[in-house]
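Hey, sorry to bother you again with one of my protein questions. I've been staring at a protein lately and its backbone has me curious. I owe you a coffee for this, so here goes:
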Amino acid sequence: MSAPVDTPSPRAWWVVAPLAAIWAAALGWAIFALPVLAAWVASVQSTAGWVQVLRTSGLVWVVGHDVPVQVESATYSLLPWGLLVIPVYLLIHAGRWAGRAARVDSVRDWLLVAGGGAVIYTLIVSVVSFLARVPGARTSTKYALLAALAISVLSLTWGVLRGSSMRAVIIDAIPSDIRVVIRGAVIGIATMIAIGAALVSLSLILHFGEVIRIQQFLDP
C-alpha cells in the first residue's frame, strides 16, 4: 500500500493574483527591453544612462499594448497588432498558473483571481506609462490604463479558466457543433490579425521614407 501524497493547499486569491500580474508585467517588460538594451550596448557614442534606458524600455513595453505613442507633435496610433501577442500570451499563461495555484472551482474565485490580477496589471502599466517619458516621446496614461485593463481582463479571465477545474464542465456543456464553430472562428480571427500585422509592418518598412515625407508635409 502506497503512502498518501500530500497535496499543497490552495493559495489565497489575494496572493496569487498579484503574483501573476507582476510576473506577466516583469517578463513582458524584459522581452521588450532586450532590443533597447542591445542597441544601447552596441552604440559606442550613446550618452544615455541607465535611467534613460529603463524609461525607453518601459515606453516600448507600454506601446506593445497597442497604446498610441506621441513623438514630438505627431501621434502614432496605427501600430502592428502583432505586438499584442507577447502581453496576451504572458497574461494567459500567468492566469493559468493562478487558476491552478488557487484551485479555482467556482465563479466567485474565478472572478476574484482574474479581476484582482487585472487591477494590479493595469496599475503597473499606468504607472510605467506615466514615468516612462523620454525626450520627444511619451504615451497617454489614460489610453494605457484603458488598453491594459481590456487586455488583462480578457487574457486573465481566459487563463484562469484554463487553469481551473471549471473548464471541462463549461466546455462539456457547449454542444460539439458550436465548439467547432467557435474554434474555427478564433483561429480565423487570429490568423487574419497576424497576417494583417505582418503586412502593415512590412509596408511601413518598405515605405518608411514616404511615411516620413507625408508626416513632414502635414506638420511642417
User: Anything to note?
Assistant: Residues 174-220 form one domain.
